[in-house]
Design brief:
heterodimer, B: mainly alpha, MetI-like fold, two-stranded antiparallel ribbon, 70% helix, transmembrane helix (chain A), transport (chain A)
């Protein structure tokens, strides 16, 4: 009966004892959700997904139809036409390429640097380790927006306006990444393995390459996806240094659609849809891993 | 998923078994082994940790710390957007100018109210959803992924959609309100509706994410606590109040701090919510936040020096928040 619902890690002895307890004792992950739980979740899910579905509906209509009541609840016939116009008007082809370059470079660099630093913080002993780790945690609390003015001056001085490196360079580090990898490596990498490699005479760099990277691979993948999403959706900084007509990222291009002088709402929605689809696809495929990553990074925040 | 809880509680945490890592005192056998290692090996073991953490700190110093400090320096100068490298010393004038500006205080107030309207319901809903997700559910991964979809949506895309949904004349929300007899609301024109609308976008994007964070913490609560509470006759609601909530206190504090920092930086949503007004955050600045005010001063009015003063004022506010956080978490630790 109730024994079938125990999570695998719970010892069996304990479970037998528990089945004699009143029903209310089995909270915290061992109690089946009732119809009410599903109903609430369904409502929450509809609220979460409705704006996205409606984006597609609005993108499949035309501007006139969006200026009538009641608003449309089902798809019209203009979807592909609107997508094509938005794609061309907002320069989305170039924007996709740019954003892929920026987000890809940022994610890969952050993952590699964070893994190495996270390994040092998790497994190596050195003077000042705890103090430096505190600095890392402290920097997580400083929002990057507060640094934009000198960065903007730098970009102006280097004449980097409208160039991708202006967006790439400030996005190459993440304190969260270091923290995340440290937490993962603390429990995923046994000291014995490092020790064994050491005894074989491996240098620290060889240990990183042959021991740490293979052990950290799942967490690296998750961190990479989280950082890719973050860089893909970053708005303020790209908006300041890249222009719509110059070398936009997707967010700059999509925001530009909304700020036109004669906004065509169905086209704006088509652009918003195009800008969102790639990430929704990533989430549909790797959703389980991303969810796991967020939850893992959360514990002991 | 089921292993999450032991990861959190894992005894391995805290890292190295003492004596195994180079540089600490250990047994004779290990000592002899270490003696065999070459000098180069020792140098490697001693300095490589610094080499491993150096890239992070160097990049952070260049693109995080230095700009942050330099912002303080720039805030004491007159700097114009048109010539960002020409700086004229003006002392504290930028600060007195912004503190004399009604729009600064307006923006500060808006940031505070939008912060409250967006953070409080968000975290409360997230807590409720996390509690439900903590039951045994069919298709649990599906629910978790589905509610992350807003998190995958960018601020720009989300805001543009909500602008349409909140449209005064043809928006779906006013239409739905009209169906129950409420007159159309000028979401973009009036102060409170505007702030509620902007907050709605933030709530929509972040609630699922925070629910996952609470869920992770709930799964780390030992089952025994619930059992003994139940033996004492506590109902499920009382268990939630007296077991779940107290165990989540550090996590709640963490999400409050992160959300507060996020709320202090709100920029894209109010900028795009009224595309015609842009940086002023509505015709009467009714939903202009500090982030938007900084942008307006720096990039529309072209006073980078004054914008720097705003940035440092925001920084000071964050430090105060951080200190309050420290104080509270110390109290929490002392009481538990």
């Amino acid at each position: 009966m109730t024994t079938t619902v125990t999570p695998p890690e719970t010892p069996i002895v304990k479970e037998q004892k528990r089945s004699r307890l009143p029903k209310s004792a089995r909270a915290g992950g061992t109690l089946h959700g009732g119809p009410l739980a599903y109903a609430i979740l369904a409502v929450f899910m509809i609220v979460s997904l409705f704006p996205l579905v409606w984006t597609a509906i609005a993108a499949s209509r035309d501007n006139q139809r969006l200026a009538e009541t009641p608003p449309p609840f089902w798809f019209g016939s203009n979807l592909f036409k609107n997508l094509e116009i938005a794609w061309n008007d907002a320069n989305l082809g170039e924007a996709f390429l740019n954003t892929t370059i920026v987000a890809g470079t940022s994610a890969v660099t952050i993952v590699v640097l964070s893994t190495i630093a996270g390994f040092a913080f998790a497994k190596l002993r050195f003077k000042g380790r705890n103090a430096l780790m505190l600095v890392v945690i402290g920097t997580m609390m400083i929002p990057p927006q507060l640094s934009i003015i000198p960065l903007y001056m730098m970009v102006a001085k280097l004449d980097w306006t409208d160039q991708l490196q202006a967006v790439i360079f400030p996005s190459l580090v993440s304190a969260f990444g270091v923290f995340f990898m440290r937490q993962y490596l603390l429990q995923a990498l046994p000291d014995e393995v490092i020790e064994a490699a050491r005894v074989d005479g491996a240098s620290s760099w060889r240990v990183v390459w042959h021991v740490v990277f293979p052990a950290a691979r799942p967490a690296m993948a998750v961190l990479g996806m989280l950082m890719f999403v973050q860089a893909w959706n970053d708005f303020l900084w790209p908006f300041l240094v890249l222009t719509q007509t110059g070398n936009p990222t997707v967010q700059v291009a999509v925001a530009g659609l909304g700020r036109g002088y004669t906004p065509d709402q169905s086209l704006i929605m088509a652009g918003a849809l195009l800008g969102t689809l790639p990430l929704l696809l990533v989430f549909a495929i790797f959703g389980k891993q991303i969810v796991g990553g967020i939850m893992q990074g959360a514990v002991k925040g | 998923m089921a292993t999450r809880s032991d990861i959190a509680a894992s005894p391995v945490k805290g890292g190295a078994a003492p004596g195994r890592t180079p540089g600490s005192h250990s047994t004779d056998k290990e000592g002899r082994r270490r003696a065999r290692l070459s000098r180069r090996w020792q140098r490697d073991a001693r300095w490589s940790p610094y080499a491993f953490v150096a890239p992070f700190f160097l990049l952070f110093a260049a693109f995080g710390l230095f700009p942050l400090i330099y912002t303080g320096w720039a805030s004491l100068h007159q700097v114009e957007l048109t010539a960002p490298t020409d700086m004229n010393w003006v002392g504290l004038k930028n600060y007195t100018r912004i503190f004399d500006d009604d729009f600064f205080w307006n923006a500060a107030q808006n940031t505070l109210t939008i912060g409250i309207i967006s953070t409080v319901p968000q975290l409360m809903i997230a807590m409720g959803i996390a509690h439900i997700l903590n039951y045994k559910l069919r298709a649990s991964t599906f629910w978790r992924v589905a509610m992350l979809a807003p998190y995958a949506t960018s601020i720009a895309a989300a805001t543009l959609v909500f602008v349409l949904l909140f449209g005064r004349d043809y928006g779906m929300i006013n239409w739905a309100l009209g169906a129950v007899g409420i007159d159309p609301i000028g979401w973009q024109d009036d102060k409170w509706p505007g702030q509620i609308a902007v907050s709605t976008i933030i709530i929509w994007r972040w609630t699922g994410y925070n629910a996952l964070i609470y869920l992770a913490a709930m799964q780390a609560i030992p089952q025994d606590l619930y059992e003994s509470a139940a033996l004492d006759g506590a109902s499920r609601w009382r268990q939630f109040l007296h077991v779940t909530l107290p165990s989540l206190r550090p996590t709640i504090l963490f999400t409050v701090v992160v959300s507060t920092i996020g709320a202090s930086q709100v920029f894209g949503e109010p900028l795009l919510f009224d595309p015609n007004k842009g940086a002023s955050g509505g015709a009467e600045h009714q939903f202009q936040t500090l982030g938007l005010y900084l942008y307006e001063q720096g990039w529309i009015n072209q006073h980078l020096g004054r914008a720097s003063a705003i940035a440092w004022t925001m920084f000071a506010i964050l430090i105060v928040i951080g200190l309050i956080n420290q104080l509270i978490s110390r109290r929490l630790r002392a009481s538990s």
